[in-house]
């Protein structure tokens, strides 16, 4: 068996795994990444959900710099093909109503590959597609190696690394290594969450889906044969264009192409990937839409905690469910013009790289979850339980997110769960499993309850979590300290956060200071360090507003309260100037400016304060940082 060595091994090439690899390589580490599918990219590519599930501020704020490079790369591709050219900076190829950016999965794959390409060429990243995890070598609560094998049956590979990141879709490394984990729903008595069940249900794992892409071809007939179990699925699923409920509690029924009363848009435009009207006809003559609806959510079984035979049975049934939904759409769905069925819907297997036209891997909404040093819960992020503009603040935040708690029910549940949240942070402790020295969670498997996980599984949040995992692994290598030890040292946490914000990772919710703003790193680090206190009623920093004397004084007092009593040399200990005897300290000048700010803006003062602290922190030993 061949042995491969790297600084970091990453299980899973979804958005979290790719983000972790990008960050780790950027920070100088070597990475081996193993992905079971043909394509990297997870939910955005191989799982077919290429209409990004994001929040309302995403165009200005809320993603990492690398995530924005991913989005921008997709937009640039399509802007060159659009009728109007690259004029709209927020161009949405599908012009769908659920997402601000929809695209063909292959294009998302190409952009991800282009982002990774420099590190692959340099040898920092090696990707093994179509390789599955087989087993793990473990000793003294450390993972020594992960054994992977190609699905072609060739010989196994032993991957040895200093740190291991589990960014797989279902936390697949955890059981192989014997790492304790949770599945399903926790009891309300355990978590105190209002929407948790009275009793724990580890078997309640959200439904999964095989999305597919169809092209609308007027005047043509592309009806597929009935798949196995069609009639049963049609009646019991059931197949319908209804989804959700209106304000009166009545089912909200959508039309295929028209916007029905009380709905935000049509069924077709829900996750439309290509709006042909925006493109030159020779490139896209007809619309393309991705179907990911309640009609093809599979609730008949689960993929976690079952035998291989049960797993294969559930996968086969889920495929038949999705193909059955397509057959129903082609033959029985109510037509806008009267009658039944849209035989004009043509399945496009070429767009997903499969023979049957379904995604390469099911869209996974729920994973095994580590027993972590910290756990994010419903009450930490839910809007009706958090009175301020932001959710609970974490001084060790390493990622941010915003999405509803969105649970798609399992076979044991009677209804879905949909709860609004405040813009939230993900604490460092949620990435670190209890008792393990070199394992980090990097996707949907972090320390969250099932309810909180429903808000952390979406595209930009998974990316941010993966990026945080890559940052943590790289920093642990640099410091030669394990994650739990770094977590216990506030100075080391602040140093990690400093590197992250300097690399374009947001850690605090200020929606008017995006990653390209000159004050981004300053505002982010000062805020997550507790020096800048936010307005609790909104998400704004107001960078161009004049600095009020009281505001400057509070920020400087924030510095003193956090570092004024540090051990020698101490951040605020008076430092003598070179060759002189008069006491002097660079913060004194800032204090004078704060008292008489004149035309100083909040952003300008934040930058100066940040740069001053940076200079001082560089001369302190780590214990004082």
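Sequence proposed for the structure above (625 residues):
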């Amino acid at each position: 068996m061949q042995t491969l060595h790297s600084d970091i091994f990453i299980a899973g090439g979804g958005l979290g795994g790719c983000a972790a690899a990008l960050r780790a390589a950027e920070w100088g580490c070597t990475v081996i990444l193993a992905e079971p599918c043909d394509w990297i990219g997870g939910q955005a590519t191989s799982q077919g959900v290429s209409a990004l599930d994001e929040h309302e501020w995403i165009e200005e704020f809320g993603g990492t710099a690398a995530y924005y490079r991913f989005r921008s790369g997709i937009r640039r591709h399509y802007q060159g093909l659009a009728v109007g050219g690259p004029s709209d900076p927020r161009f949405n190829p599908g012009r769908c109503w659920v997402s601000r950016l929809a695209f063909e999965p292959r294009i998302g794959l190409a952009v991800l590959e282009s982002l990774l390409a420099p590190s692959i060429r340099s040898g920092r990243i090696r990707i093994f597609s179509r390789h599955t995890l087989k087993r793990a070598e473990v000793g003294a609560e450390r993972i020594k190696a992960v054994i992977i094998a190609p699905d072609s049956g060739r010989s196994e590979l032993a991957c040895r690394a200093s740190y291991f990141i589990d960014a797989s879709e279902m936390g697949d490394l955890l059981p192989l290594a014997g790492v304790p984990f949770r599945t399903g729903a926790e009891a309300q008595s355990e978590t105190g969450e209002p929407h948790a069940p009275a009793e724990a249900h580890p078997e309640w794992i959200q439904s999964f889906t095989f999305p597919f892409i169809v092209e609308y071809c007027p005047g043509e007939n592309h009806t597929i044969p009935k798949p196995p179990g069609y009639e049963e699925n049609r009646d019991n699923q059931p197949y319908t264009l209804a989804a959700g409920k209106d304000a009166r509690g009545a089912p909200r029924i959508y039309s295929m192409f028209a916007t029905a009363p009380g709905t935000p848009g049509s069924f077709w435009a829900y996750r439309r990937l290509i709006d042909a009207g925006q493109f030159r006809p020779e490139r896209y003559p007809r619309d393309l839409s991705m179907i990911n609806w309640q009609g093809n959510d599979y609730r008949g079984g689960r993929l976690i905690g079952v035998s291989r035979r049960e797993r294969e049975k559930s996968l086969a049934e889920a495929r038949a469910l999705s193909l059955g939904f397509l057959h129903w759409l082609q033959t029985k769905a109510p037509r806008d013009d009267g009658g039944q069925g849209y035989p004009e819907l043509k399945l496009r297997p070429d767009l997903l790289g499969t023979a049957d036209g379904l995604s390469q891997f099911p869209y996974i909404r729920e994973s095994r979850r580590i027993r972590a040093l910290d756990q994010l819960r419903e009450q930490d992020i839910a809007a009706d339980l958090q009175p301020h503009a932001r959710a609970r603040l974490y001084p060790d935040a390493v990622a941010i997110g915003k999405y509803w708690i969105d649970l798609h029910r399992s076979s044991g549940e009677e209804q879905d769960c949909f709860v609004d949240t405040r813009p939230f942070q993900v604490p460092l402790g949620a990435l670190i499993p209890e008792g393990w020295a070199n394992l980090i969670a990097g996707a949907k498997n972090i320390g969250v309850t099932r309810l909180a996980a429903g808000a952390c599984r979406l595209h930009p949040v998974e990316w941010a979590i993966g990026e945080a995992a890559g940052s943590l692994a790289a920093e642990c290598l640099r410091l030669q300290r394990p994650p739990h030890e770094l977590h216990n040292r506030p100075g080391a946490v602040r140093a990690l956060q400093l590197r992250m914000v300097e690399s374009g990772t947001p850690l605090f919710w200020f929606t008017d200071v995006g990653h390209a703003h000159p004050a981004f790193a300053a505002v982010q680090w000062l805020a997550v360090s507790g020096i800048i206190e936010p307005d609790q009623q909104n998400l704004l920093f107001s960078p161009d507003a004049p600095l009020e004397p009281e505001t400057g004084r509070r920020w400087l007092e924030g510095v003193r309260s956090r570092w004024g009593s540090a051990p020698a040399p101490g951040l605020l200990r008076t430092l003598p100037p070179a060759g002189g005897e008069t006491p002097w300290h660079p913060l004194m000048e800032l204090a004078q400016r704060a008292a008489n700010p004149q035309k100083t803006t909040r952003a300008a003062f934040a930058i100066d304060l940040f740069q001053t602290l940076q200079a001082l922190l560089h001369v302190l030993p780590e214990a004082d940082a």
